Amino acid sequence: MLNEHVIFVDLETTGATATYDHVTEIGIVEVDRGRLVGEWSTLVNPGISIPPAIQALTGITNDMVVLAPTFPEISRDLHGRLEGKLLVAHNARFDYGFLRNEFQRAGIRFTSRVLCTVRLSRKLYPGHARHSLDALLARHDIECDARHRALGDARALWQLVQRWQRERAPSTITAAVAELVRTPTVPAGLPGNTFDDIPEAPGVYVFYGENNVVLYVGKSVNLRARVMSHFSGDHCDSRDMRIAREITRIDWIETGGELGALIEEARLVKHMAPVYNRRLRRTMELCSWQWHPEDPDARPQVVSARDLDPSRFADLHGLFRSRASALEAMREIATAHGLCPILLGLENRKGPCFAYQLKRCRGACVGEETRTSHALRLAQVLATLRMRPWPFKGRIAVREATPGRSRTDVIMLDRWCYLGTARSEQELHDLQECPPRPTFDLDTYKILTRFFARSHGGSQVIQLAAG
Fold it and tell me: What is the pTM of this model?
């Protein structure tokens, strides 16, 4: 790392949201091939009030920045100082995100190779649990004379890296840095700045080839990092290598959070049928066994996806991707539990079933076991396959927002079915007034059962209408 031109940078800001908050101070320490060549810092007028808690933490007050230059006023000079150099920061995603947003507001495109000292510390010292700057300074006995001020923290990072270079073998540090700052190769069919505009936000991305052929659909809580990972050299699998040869365009859809990304990915995979997605899930092949335990004479019936009624999930048992797989599963249940294939609807004959002749049926077909007893045993077996009941009293909305972002999505759901996503009050009103008919989808069902089985990650569930 110290064999190239490096900028250690730290920012102080009005808050934690790069798209809303602003920089109040910048400090940089410039090192060229291991030699300190300069320092630079400035207060920045953020154009908004600094919250009292931030003032208490940093010591930077509104009075201190009122006469300071704005970011656009220093943007050209700062860009020249940073351009072409390796940017080193603690929690680098935070500092880099603020720099990119501030430069964008100033009308300047900024990109840089970035090294995060948190991630580097974890690689060099995996036995330690804490890697905050305070923890690292204490562990390595480094004093910072101006903690939570930009230049003071940038100087501390430079001292920290020097200490690591004394404590770890050069080859170890070189390998760790190379892995952390590895940049993906932009495929030949894409413009050189393709990755610059992809947001570090949850959502779904779509790779296109020639003639708008959809190659691949994916999702992530960090679109930019995930898209770039497809083209990260030695991490490419054979599919990614084929995509890199054929790709000509990338589109993406931002979502409020992970749930929205999961649902949107499942929807787009079915709609677009991408070439390289491993499993194309066709809802219309989906089947389930429908059976009413209270009627011992009723035979289980295979119902297809088009006939699934989410309001009667208590009568549905198991989800199968084809009628053949549903029948095979029931045959295995019959064999394992001595159930009668005739009463299960697997055989259409009079007299004893074939399994009874092989002593694999307890004789419900010939009266040796009552229909009620057979039904009770079948109910016990199928109880493990019963679909989960919808845990709400009708339609709900999940309000989903990722911490640190201003975007909020409202996802409308009903009986395990996705009805739509509203990104404005008008869209939410329209969805509530004219909700689409619930259409069951296996992947959405699995996504939602997992989502409601764990904590909702800060998402808010709102009851909309009673069922």
Answer: 0.64
